[in-house]
Design brief:
Elements lengths: L3 E7 L3 H12 L4 E4 L15 E2 L11 H17 L4 E9 L7 H13 L10 E4 L16 E10 L1 H14 L3 E3 L2 E9 L2 E8 L5 E11 L5 H5 L11 E12 L7 E5 L5 E7 L3 E5 L3 E2 L11 H12 L11 E12 L13 E6 L6 E6 L5 H12 L28 H11 L5 H11 L3 H5 L11 E3 L2 E2 H10 L5 H8 L8 H24 L5
Parallel strand pairs: 1-2, 1-10, 2-7, 4-12, 10-18
Antiparallel strand pairs: 3-6, 4-6, 5-6, 8-9, 9-10, 11-14, 11-15, 11-16, 12-13, 13-14, 17-18, 19-20
Helix pairs in contact: 1-4, 1-7, 8-9, 11-13
């Protein structure tokens, strides 16, 4: 028998990559396979928030909210380049939740999670404060402003995987697990390279099913487990429009149906609006924002905004399927966002399946997963958790240092325009200089693909971040798809097809490390 990994993980979303990182950092040998690109499923289609979940207090999810609030500041400190504070304005609507209830909820939000760095809630006079200007004149006079954080969700996944690989994990994308079975108390996972069709089998002492919306399909591929838990697929759709207002605050609007909709400044020149909540039945890979959802989001925010938003204003839509634990809630909006583990030991070897979870709680989820698997991992996973204080790649800087890093890049590379330097600082943090190398001029960065994307950056993403296609780069490693034309994206794909093998070489020569 060849190598037997301590842990094999199926699924390259935030939960799978978070477990891979934590386990590798504790000294375990780790294998992870993802059938598509990292974060190509649920993890890249979120509302881009690291937040406690203010509305979950209404469903008495106090443990989940407290844990998420604690994680909020921890994640900000280990990844300040891709996570930033964001102030939310909650206008009071006299016909919906009463002001006293909002104050109580915000008081709890400020105090149950050990908030230390983020500013507290304040009352806002919407008739005179600048945050009231985009709203319908005269309709809203009172509001509240509170703190949460914004996150580049797909980059959070990729950087977590990168750190796992740096610590020895074998990360394989475009690699599908086609069969899982046990032999002599060891899991045998047969995987198929989607490009070549070549199959191989790896062995592992423990197996994690982090398949997200496909968690039940993974169990059906030969695990020999009759799952007790059930997954509830809930569709969440978002729209992006041109920038709606000048200030930097976000809004949380209450709807008459009891749902809330976020309006968030996005990528400097745009505004993100979401999300919907409705049960989904079908292939999770084919989910799309429907015309009905787009109209719902436009109508919802137009109730509050002085300048209405219409479907004609939408420049991009995206949708994802949340694999929630089915707790029997009658409405999708009320289904728990907490995570649930199901540990089975058919034949003696452990299989841990994950249901639900949030971007915000992925790090704690990983710790709990390894606590459950500790008896089966030769004691390695019983070591002290470490991920709360170890920065993700590029995140080794103070939470307030991004502006200084941007200025430093402009000094070191004076040919960069401010928007280019700022984008690189936010995407790569202290590793931005590795993208730029020894360039003395913009021309030294190689071919320009538009939107400040250059050959140098594309080569870096292929060599170090598992990027294989233009879609990987312009919609997951960045959001430059909002700025590039279809022709520019096609030209990028053509360049990748011609140069990918050469661009991958540094990663292969480094043995997967960087």
């Amino acid at each position: 028998m060849g190598q037997v990994f301590d842990l094999a993980i199926i699924g390259g979303g935030i939960n799978g990559c978070g477990i891979a990182r934590d386990a590798a950092g504790r000294g375990n040998s780790v294998f992870l396979c993802e059938m598509n690109d990292l974060a190509s499923g649920t993890s890249s289609w979120s509302t881009k928030l690291v937040h406690g979940g203010l509305r979950y207090l209404e469903y008495y999810e106090f443990r989940l909210v407290r844990e998420a609030l604690i994680e909020r500041e921890l994640l900000w400190q280990i990844a300040p380049h891709i996570i930033r504070p964001l102030r939310f304005v909650l206008p009071h609507h006299s016909g919906l939740r009463p002001a006293w209830l909002l104050r109580l909820g915000l008081f709890l939000y400020d105090h149950i999670g050990g908030r230390k760095l983020l500013p507290p809630t304040r009352s806002v006079d919407l008739a005179h404060d600048e945050v009231g200007q985009p709203l319908v004149p005269g309709r809203y006079t009172k509001g509240f402003e509170y703190s949460d954080c914004f996150v580049d969700d797909a980059r959070l996944v990729v950087l977590t995987a990168r750190d796992a690989a740096n610590r020895g994990a074998d990360i394989r994308t475009r690699t599908r697990a086609v069969q899982i079975q046990q032999a002599d108390g060891i899991w045998q996972v047969t995987v198929e390279d989607k490009a070549s069709g070549e199959r191989s089998t790896i062995s592992a002492r423990a197996l994690v099913n982090a398949g997200g919306p496909w968690v039940e399909e993974v169990l059906a591929s030969g695990a020999g487990v009759n799952a007790r838990a059930k997954v509830r697929l809930v569709q969440g759709s978002h729209i992006v429009v041109r920038k709606l207002y000048a200030h930097d605050r976000a809004y949380m609007f209450q709807n008459s149906d009891g749902r809330i909709v976020f309006v968030i400044p996005y990528q400097d020149d745009f505004t993100l609006i979401g999300t919907t909540d409705r049960d989904y039945d079908g292939d999770p890979a084919k989910v799309k924002a429907s015309a009905e959802e787009i109209k719902y989001l436009c109508d919802s925010v137009s109730e509050y905004l002085a300048k209405p938003v219409s479907p004609a204003d939408v420049v991009w839509t995206y949708a994802g399927v949340r694999p929630l634990y089915d707790d029997g809630a009658s409405e999708a909006k009320a289904a728990t966002r907490d995570y649930v583990f199901e540990l089975d030991t058919p034949g003696g070897a452990p299989l841990l399946s994950i249901y639900g979870g949030k971007i915000t709680t992925y790090r704690r989820l990983a710790e709990e997963a390894l606590e459950k698997l500790a008896p089966y991992l030769n004691g390695a996973a019983a070591k002290q958790g470490w991920t709360a204080k170890s920065p993700l790649p590029g995140g080794d800087l103070d939470v307030s240092a991004i502006a200084a890093l941007t200025a430093e890049l402009q000094r070191g590379y004076p040919f960069l325009i401010p928007a280019h330097a700022g984008r690189l600082a936010h995407a790569y943090g202290t590793r931005a200089s590795k993208v730029l190398g020894n360039a003395k001029s913009f021309a030294d960065l190689g071919q320009s693909f538009g939107g400040t994307l250059t050959e140098s950056e594309v080569r870096y993403l292929i060599a170090n971040e598992w990027a294989c296609t233009a879609e990987d780069i312009v919609w997951r490693r960045s959001k430059l798809g909002l700025r590039l034309s279809a022709a520019e994206i096609s030209a990028l794909d053509g360049w990748i097809s011609a140069h990918r093998a050469q661009a991958e070489r540094p990663l292969l020569e480094a043995g997967g490390r960087t």
